[in-house]
Amino acid sequence: MRVMSSPLKVDADPEELGFDPARLARIDHHFARYVDDGRLAGWHTVVARDGRVVHSSVAGYRDAEAGLPVTDDTRWRIYSMTKPITSVAAMILWEQGRFELTDPISRWLPEFAEPRVYVKGSSTKPLLEAATEPIRVWHLLTHTAGLTYGFHHAHPVDELYRAAGFEWAAPAGIDLAGCVEAWARMPLVFQPGTEWNYSHATDVLGRLIEVVSGQRLDAFLDEHVLGPLGMTATRFVVDDPDRLATLYVANPATGRYLSAEAAGMGSMGRDALEDTWLSGGGGLVSTAADYHRFTQMLLGRGEVDGVRILGSRTVDYMAQNHLPGGADLEQVGRPLFAEMPFHGVGFGLGVATVIDPVRYRTVSSRGELSWGGAASTAFWVDPAERITAMFFTQLLPSSAHPIRTQLRGLVYQALVD
Predict the structure, then answer these.
(1) Which whole number is the average pLDDT over 295-308?
(2) Of 120, 238, 290, 336, which has the fewest CB atoms closer than 10 Å, so is most exposed?
(3) 128, 196, 193, 195: which is closest to 157 by C-alpha?
C-alpha cells in the first residue's frame, strides 16, 4: 500500500495542543536573523504534536544566487538523516528472521572475515593486531564496529581513508560493494564493541541489506520503507533538480554562507544529481513532508495512518541505549561533533537517545530520539511529550551554528500545557 504525501501545512490550533502561538513565533523571529545576516541562505522548520502540525514555516532561498525561495517541496540533502532510514530497513529484515543482531557480518560480507585493529603508530607505519571478536550486525547499527570517516581528521586511520579517496565522497566509478571492500582492507580504530565512533558503519549496513535481501539498497528502501510511508520524493538521485536546495559552506572568516561550488567543493554540490554509489549512511535527498512521515512512524512506534512497517516493540528496542555498559557518548564516544552535546546522550540502533536530560544540558525528555545531517539538518522525536520537530537547511558543516540546541529551546519554551 502506498500513501501519498502532500506539502506540510499547519493543521491544528497550537493552543489545543498545549502550545502558545506567540511563543512558537519566536522560532521564526530567531532563525529569520540567520537569513538576514547571511549565516543561512534559507530554511524550513516543522513542529508537530500528536501527529498534527502546529508550526511549519520557511524563510530565505533554496538558491540564493538564482533568487529561488524555499518552498514546502524543496528537496534537501539530508546526509546522515539517511542513517535512521537505513537502520529501520535493516530492522525490517531482522523482524523477518533474516539475521540475528549478534551475527558476524562476515557471514554475508566475507571481506570482513579477519579484521585488523590499529594499536599505535602513524598512518604509514601502523602497528596492528587481530580483532578479538568479529564485527557484528549490532556493531554496525550502534557505530561500535571500529570503522571511521576520512573527514574526521582525528586518527591515523582517518588518514588512510582519505588516502584511499574517502573523505566527503567515494572515488569515482566505485559502487557500494567496492566501497565496502575498500573499507574492509582498512584497520579498525578500536576493538569491535568497545567504543563509539561515527563512521561508514551504516553504509556497510546498507550493503548488508543488499546481500541479505538480494535487492539493491534503493529498491529495498522503496519497497519496504519509502513507498509504504508515502515518501515519494526521497531518493538517492533528486527527482526534481529545479527544486534542489543549493549546498552552501560556512565561510570561517565572515560566518556568512558561500556556495559549495564557489568554495571549490563542486563534487559535493552535484552529489544529489548523479547516480553514484548508494550511501545508506548519507546519500538520500528528501522533503520536509516526506521526512515528517518518517518521524510520525517513529512516534507511532512503527505505524502511521494505518501503515505499519515495524513492530512497536522493535521501535522501542531501537530507542534504548545500546552503548557498552549503558554509558553515554561522552564516556565511550570520540569527541567529534561540536553541534550537539555528548553528556547524557546514548545511542540506540541507528538513532541517538537521551538518557539523562539534566546531563544533556538541554530541555528534552528521557527517551527522545534524534539525529541530524552534515548540512545542518536535524530532527527529533519526543515520545513523552508526543512532539516531533525538524529543521532543514543546506550549510556545511553542521557545527557552524548551534541550530539544534537553539531549536530545542525554542520549541519547548512554547509548550505551556
Answers:
(1) 98
(2) 120
(3) 128
Q: What percent of the chain has pLDDT over 90?
A: 83
H runs (alpha helix) in 250-349 = 266-269, 288-299, 312-318, 329-332
C-alpha cell at 113: 572475515
Consecutive H or E run containing 219: helix 217-221
pTM exceeding the 0.90 threshold for the entire prediction: yes
CA pseudo-torsion sign 13, 17, 22, 23: negative
pLDDT tens for each residue of 55-88: 999 999 999 999 999 999 999 999 999 999 999 9
> Which superfamily is assigned to 14-88+233-413 in CATH?
DD-peptidase/beta-lactamase superfamily (3.40.710.10)
Residue 126, helix vs strand vs coil: strand
Domain ranges in the chain? 14-88+233-413, 98-213
Give Cα separations from 385 to 212, 349, 411 (angstroms): 37, 21, 11
**Rounded to whole angstroms, how far apart are CA atoms 320 and 330?**
17
Does the pLDDT value for residue 1 go beyond 50?
no
> For cell 557498552, what's the residue?
324
Q: What is the per-residue pLDDT across 310-323, written as a single tens digit (0 to 9) for each?
A: 999 999 999 999 99
CA–CA gap between residue 81 and residue 311 (Å, rounded): 21
